[in-house]
Amino acid sequence: MTDFGKIKGFYFVGIGGIGMSAIALYFIKGGFYVAGYDRCESKITESLASKGCNISFNDNTDSLPELFVNHVEKNNVIVVYTPAIPSESKILSFFREEGYAIMKRSEILGLISANTKTLAIAGSHGKTTVSTMTAHIFKQSKIDCSAFLGGISKNYESNLLLGNSNFTVIEADEFDRSFHRLAPTMAAVTSLDADHLDVYGDRKTMVEAYNIFCSKIRKDGKLVVNKKIRSEIIVPDGVTCYTYGTENGSDFYTHNIRHCPDGYRFNIKTPWNVTEDIFFPFPGIINIENFTVASAIALLCGVEEDEIIKAAMLFSGVRRRFDIRADIGGITYVDDYAHHPEEIRAFIKSVKEYFKGRKITGIFQPHLFTRTRDNADGFAAILDELDETILLPVYPAREEPIEGVSSEMIFRRMQSVNKKLMEKEDLVNALDVNNLDVLLTMGAGDIDKLVEPVEEKIRKAKG
């Protein structure tokens, strides 16, 4: 636990976020008083509350615990916020006006990890799965690690892992340039698809931000990059760069991939030798590439080959990442966080490969008006590859509506005739379970609230 001197408590504005909740849990486990605000209740807030966290769902100062309104204690508390919180938040405005110490989530994460060997995984998609796989490999090895994850590991049922080594695995978030607060010993970049253009304006500026992130790697550090994007990454002086992928010529090269009844088998060629016949029971061809970079990071840190093989066999996945929720009565239901066209493309490609020849129905909730506006053509093109698509209204998150921007933008561009627009509250009742084969839910908004009702309906009908 990092020494925060005389600090007595931490207040989190936006405590229900997956990244914020991991840090809140870290301080709870460290014996600090922790409280926070979020817009609505969730399983995450319920879990934190069960551990003694004081959480309010009203954005007003009346809900603040005494420690955080007592001016005598002002220098003994730290307020942590996520940039996704609107600037007009009453609670955040109060702390600013009263001169409290306020830090972004990325700043506090940078402080926590500053004195550790930080392994930071970045990328427009794949970083949650890769960081979880990396942490899992370390946990199955003699080395161990701590980890702050952007999803709930199904192996450990948590987004926070605490260990006994000096390695810390961190998901490096590019939104609002948050990853510039980190100073990793080793970094990985998985992808550079245009995203968060509401922050960056264009892809060129976004790529520049990734290169600034890479420039933060500590002297004599290491960088692992997807071979497909290597030409766009500037390797800092004094940093050793390795590539990975399924392309021949990568430093860490996955080949001889075979789809077997219970998963996959494959080999990984490394700069030193070949690790053969790795059994990987987790679905999705994209996840073999994800496991390759996680293995590269681990091997470069001293994890042994046999520990990699063991970790592959035992990996259970991440909640909302190719998350098979039901496989019963001839219906398979898979939930995924995919919300960018390229993420959805990779997910659908993996689904079609894994469930070859089956009818696929996809339910998609677009996330953010700006992302919908900027990627309507891309969304339409990839959703057309499904046998049937149901589009839900855009989830606004931190944004105000944009005139003319809605799910209908995607709907109108789709060529498929098997498509529907539907309100979220009508979905579960409208689903015809007897007409389903493989069902997908996709999105980063509150579509996750539909997952259990959909699963329950399927199990009730087919169980």
Structure description:
The protein has 463 residues and is of the alpha/beta class. The chain has three domains: 9-104, Rossmann fold (3-Layer(aba) Sandwich), CATH 3.40.50.720; 114-314, UDP-N-acetylmuramoyl-L-alanine:D-glutamate ligase; 323-462, Mur ligase, C-terminal domain (Protein-Tyrosine Phosphatase, Chain A), CATH 3.90.190. It is 32% helix and 24% strand. It is built from 14 helices and 21 strands. The strands form three sheets. It has a ten-stranded mixed sheet with strand order 8-7-9-6-10-11-12-13-14-15, with helices on both faces. The protein has a six-stranded mixed sheet with strand order 16-17-21-18-19-20, with helices on both faces. Strands 3-2-1-4-5 form a five-stranded parallel sheet, with helices on both faces. A hairpin with a 4-residue loop joins strand 7 and strand 8 (158-161). Helix 5 crosses helix 8 (286-300), helix 5 (127-139) crosses helix 9 and helix 11 (369-383) packs parallel to helix 12. The longest helix is centred in the middle third of the chain and has 15 residues, at 286-300. It is globular and about 65 Å long. The model has no long low-confidence stretch (mean pLDDT 94).
